[in-house]
Structure formats: structure tokens, C-alpha cells
Fold this sequence. Notes:
Blueprint: H1 12-56, H2 62-73, H3 82-94, H4 122-128, H5 131-140, H6 161-164, H7 170-181
Amino acid sequence: MTEVPQALPLGYAELLSDIKQRVRHAQTRAVLAVNAELIRLYWDIGALIDKRQKQEGWGAGVIPRLARDLHNALPEEKGFSERNIKRMLAFYREYPLVDFVPQAVAQSAATPEVPQAVALFEAQLLQAIPWGHHAELMAKVKDLPKPIGVSGYELTRALPENLGSSLPSIEEIERELQGDEA
């Protein structure tokens, strides 16, 4: 027997669309909540290690042992390699004054919108960024006070003489630019 398709009730398509949208928004909020917890955990682990290193005089040698022991105690857990534990410590040291206030799961927003990053406070912003991005930023940005991309290389030294003489001098370019501004 073949089933005869029934006509959909009035408003059914809108109901289906609304439910799908709510499920997607709930999934997004869940992912963001998990990420925020992970960031808080990693910051907290970094803080614990930093505190112990200062109090007990531990060196960096404790981190490989800690990574091995965590792997043996929690073999199903990922993310506690020596390299990642060092990143946790570096993460805490980058943001030692951030106040991570635990979020109650029951206090999730009723609205499905996710706030824009510029509207977040420092701790919220840090929690909204995935751990892999934090690790990449810490690896790439070594010292912020140093200017980026400053070079003393002079292109004119590498040019052939016949080409170099046809280019305007720096002074001529500056005069040209100043003439355009006036």
C-alpha cells in the first residue's frame, strides 16, 4: 500500500522553520558555553602552575611530568600534552588579571542572538575565542611593544643602474605628495 500524502496544516512550514532555527541557535550557544568553560579551565590550570612555580620554586621541568601523569590518569582526555600545558601557563601569564566569573548554565540567554565581540567584556571576549586561536596568537605575537613590519631594506640598491636613474627620488616623491595635499 502507498501512503497518500496529507495536506500540511496551515502554518506548519513556519513552525518547522522556527523549531529548526531554535535548535541551531541552541547548538551554537552550547558550543560557545563549552568553549568558555574550556578557556576558563585552561586559564585556571595556568594559574595553578604559575602559583606553584612561584611558591615552590618549581621550574619548567615539572610540566613534562605533569603531562605524562595527566595522560596516565585521564587517558581518554585530550588537550593535556606538554605543549598545551605550556600554552595554558603562557595564557595565564598573558592575562593574569582577568576575572573569569563562572557562568551558571541555567542563566543562558533567552534570546538566540550571539553578542558581537566588541560588545563583550575582556573575560567574555577571551572566552568567546577558541583555544586554537589563542594558541596561534600567543605563538605569533611575541612582543606587542615592538613595531611590526619595519624594514631598513632599500630597493634602489638592488635595481640596475639604467632603471634606478629613471625613478624619482624620495625628495621628488615627497614634493609631489605635498603638492597634492596643498
